[in-house]
Amino acid sequence: MDTKRLIASDLLKIKAVFFRPEEPFTWASGIKSPVYCDNRLTLTAPEVRNDVEQSLAKVVKENYPDAEVLMGTSTAGIAHAAITAHLLNMPMGYVRSGNKDHGRQNRIEGKLEKGQKVVIIEDLISTGGSVIEVAEALRDAGAEVLGIASIFTYGMQKGLDRLAAANLKNISLTDFDCIAEVAAENGYIKPEDIKRLIAFRNNPSDESWIGASK
Fold it and tell me: Whole-model pTM above 0.85?
């Protein structure tokens, strides 16, 4: 089994990602979504966690061979960055969503030298906003950001466009299309639901997919 399908199966199995097209979830933005994603659940499932971290380590080695430091996104990417860095015997740190309001008021935690080559470890990417902010903070600190290694991406056009505009390469272990396909094959959703899920992915603000199967 290739990595994309392995990780897709893993995430579905532990309900880190699961689909509910008939009873959509509501995001904080108000958008109705047929998918729920919480990759933090991988940390409490040792077999899945091992698959994820070994795969992230492989992504870094194969796609970013010059990497010198791993930086996790706060908070979801921190544990994955730490475990992956341990497997690769590399230094790691993490980037806060904002500067601390006390002490040294750091935003970047861990030692980072100007000019060091960094890979960002992220759990999931939707519109790309938060990971782009992390990359900007690292660049402002003088780091050379080689790219991102993430567990899951929705592949939303807005996210792809924003990453491209920020000159950020992203390699994800699996993606929305693969997980939808594996979910249908294993009975988590109906095969005819795939078209509805892709319609959501292509335009999250258009809710016409919700009643599309009726």
Answer: yes
